[in-house]
Amino acid sequence: MEHHFTVHFLFQVKPDKLGEFENLLATLKPEMAAQPGCIGFVCFKRFHTFDGVEWGQPPRELSKIVKCVKYHALWQFDNIENCGKAQGWLMEEHYKALAKLLIAPFDINSGYEV
Q1: Distance between CA 26 and CA 23 in Å, rounded?
Q2: 3-state secondary structure of 80
Q3: How far apart are CA 21 and CA 52, in angstroms?
Q4: By CB count within 10 A, which of 37, 40, 41, 72 is most buried?
Q5: pLDDT given for residue 62 in this prediction
Q6: How many whole angstroms separate alpha carbon 78 and alpha carbon 60?
């Protein structure tokens, strides 16, 4: 069984910067997917929650934005070396553009899939 290396990002986007963030993401997605060793890249905007929902029922839509809108992304690679190179590329080329749209630096977690 092959274990891919995966990176998880949490972006906390300023409410007044959602359009800019989504436009930047639309540009970044194909570039990220084209990085050597990339197996896949997916991103989603958190606009639903299971809080207060009975088990087995669909999640409910969030009713308001409190301080930010959270986006989660998974970037999957064939090995840790390609992940490191791609991460370096992302930071060198796009960190400043991303950082100005966020309320705090984005969280990055990584590891091998189980």
Answers
A1: 5
A2: helix
A3: 29
A4: 41
A5: 67
A6: 35
Specify the length of the chain in residues: 114
- Neighbouring residues of 61: CB distance < 8 A, sequence distance ≥ 6: 47, 48
Which pTM does this prediction carry?
Answer: 0.83
79's tokens = 């090995």
- Residue 77 CB neighbour total at 10 angstroms: 24
Interval 32-91: pLDDT, tens: 999 999 999 999 887 766 767 678 877 767 677 778 899 999 999 999 999 999 999 999
Mean per-residue pLDDT for 12-35? 95
Which pair of structure tokens corresponds to residue 44?
């989603």
Give the amino acid at 79: N
Distance, in Å, from the CA atom of 53 to the CA atom of 83, rounded to the nearest integer, reads 37
